[in-house]
Amino acid sequence: MRDVRRGQISGICIWALDRLARSLRQLLDISQELQRLNVDLVAVKQDLDTSSPAGRLVYSVLSCVAEFERELLRERVRSGLAQARRNGKRLGRPPLRKFDEHEMAQIRNLLKKGASIRGLAIRFGTTQYVVGKLVSLTSQNHSILGA
Q1: For residue 74, what is the domain's CATH number?
Q2: Is residue 93 a part of any domain in this protein?
Q3: Which helix (H) or strand (E) holds 48?
Q4: Which of 10, 51, 134, 146 has minimal CB crowding within 10 Å?
Q5: Which residues form the domain of 64?
């Protein structure tokens, strides 16, 4: 778009409208800016050329359809994830390893003695995120239990 604004480009060719922007608002903004700068847009998949009034009309309609399709896909993905959670399916990557109470106590003690989260992650064969999560879960459990 920087080159378009500098007047270095007279036309843009893309595969499909949904590859250009993520929302109808973005597509319309891009379209208005391209019209203002006298730059034509061609979308190969939709056989669209905005150099004519009919092409601009089709662009607007297809923009709405592209946004609708994206929203349907997003809704189906969310619904599928929710269904998987209801069925007890674990989502995301499997943990690198599981920790028993002894290891968790060991991690807590080492942290109290000044060990770094990074060092503990390396030592226990996990990630810094997991060590931090174990520590925060432990402190939350203690505060809930009044310890």
Answers
A1: 3.40.50.1390
A2: no
A3: strand 48-49
A4: 146
A5: 2-86
Looking at the domain assignment, is residue 95 inside a domain?
Answer: no
Shared domain check, 75 and 137: no
Structure tokens at 83: 């269904």
Domain boundary among 44, 59, 86: 86
CA distance 91 to 84: 8
Map residue 14 onto helix, strand or coil.
strand
How many other CB atoms sit within 10 Å of the CB of residue 58? 17
| pTM (two decimals) | 0.43
Per-residue tokens: 116: 């770094």
Query: CB–CB of 134/104 below 8 Å?
Result: yes
What the block records as the tokens of 119 is 């060092």
Q: How many domains does the chain have?
A: 2
Query: What are the pLDDT tens digits along the chain (147 aa)?
Result: 889 888 898 888 988 877 888 777 788 788 888 888 989 888 888 787 877 888 878 877 877 887 788 889 999 999 999 999 999 998 888 877 888 889 888 988 898 898 899 999 999 988 898 888 877 765 555 443 333
